Amino acid sequence: MSKKVPVTLLDLAVIPEGQHPRDAVKRVKALAQTAERSGFNRIWLAEHHGMHAVASAATSTLLAGVGAVTERIRLGAGGVMLPNHAPLIIAEQYGTLDALYPGRIDLGLGRAPGTDPVTAQALGRDIQEDAKRYPDDIAMLRHYFSEEQADITAVPGHGAQVPLWLLGSSLYSAQLAAELGLPYSFASHFAPDALFDAITLYRNHFKPSEQQPSPYVAAGMMVVVAETQAEANRRFTSLQMQFAQLGRSENHAFPAPVDDIRLALMEREIRGVNASHRYAAVGTPEVVEAKIREFVDATDIDELILSFPLYEQSHAEEAIGAVGDMKNLILPMS
Q: Where is the Luciferase-like domain (predicted)?
């Protein structure tokens, strides 16, 4: 039998059409509780700015709220876009989370701005110059979390030993994670092209560290589950339309599903979106389990990251529960 893997919920904190960000925040908490009951290992939230469909801009603040309504599931950023922030601020924020929820906090890091160039400028960032400092900023963040004495101390944060991850969709992030001896998460749920090359590079060049003695890889999939294939396909149209809108530089709330995606998008848009989501598992529980198993076997990943891009909260809870029932695949939270 193929190996079982722990599962992370990557919640994009979607804001459906006609709803308020406060509704999205309530939904994040409810989905975290569902994931915890279903045996998921972690819940991660991702930093995005200026997006009408995403409510997780203040990632650490939202994680504090999630921690208050859960008991054991790990909490983390998947990820914080480090070039947007001074490393000291991130050390203090996630050191505070570690003080609130000891032993439950992860910190995944990315180097993209998590937004468009205009909004990045409003954040006070120079995308190219800030990205150049990324390796140095990671080193500084590790230093702040260590027990080393320094002139500048992160309080809270000093000695917190919050586990760091590197996130990415390119060979650059894979190479850097290997060099630094950090666990690595690949964004195959929306940018799959370099998946296998990145995993191979990471494993072949990994250098053990105090935090991570051996390579550890996670990779992502989008999941939509329904009783019938036709209904799953209908629910998936929300994601298809959202990504097509992003491709047109349109900024809208998360769209309601439609019965026929061909009436909402042009054929080339459908092809492009589906190519970016080639690893999405969309279908009945049996179909989804088979697709997840195929993905895990092909990549030999150590952990699976799943996102549930669904308009209705009840549908997302249903899908999370269905994955939790896949006992031959999922390694429940210990």
A: 18-298
Mean pLDDT of 273-286: 97
109 SS3 class:
strand
Residue 154's nearest CA partner among 166, 144, 141, 146 is 144
> CA-CA distances (angstroms) from residue 263 to 29, 104, 240, 241, 267?
34, 45, 12, 11, 10
pTM of the model: 0.94
CA separation for the pair 97, 103 (Å, rounded): 10
**CA neighbours within 13 Å on the CB side: how many for 35?**
31
Quick check: bond before 324 cis, omega within 30? no
Phi first, then psi: give them for residue 161, nearest 5 degrees: 55, 40
pLDDT for 105-139, tens place per residue?
A: 999 999 876 666 776 676 666 767 777 899 999 99
- Give the chain's domains with CATH numbers: 7-222+300-324 (3.20.20.30)
Phi, psi angle pair for 69, to nearest 5°: -110, 5
Peptide bond into 156 cis (omega under 30): yes
Q: What is the DSSP track for 61-73?
A: HHHHHHHHT-SSS
- Contact between residue 199 and residue 186 where contact means Cβ atoms under 8 Å apart: yes
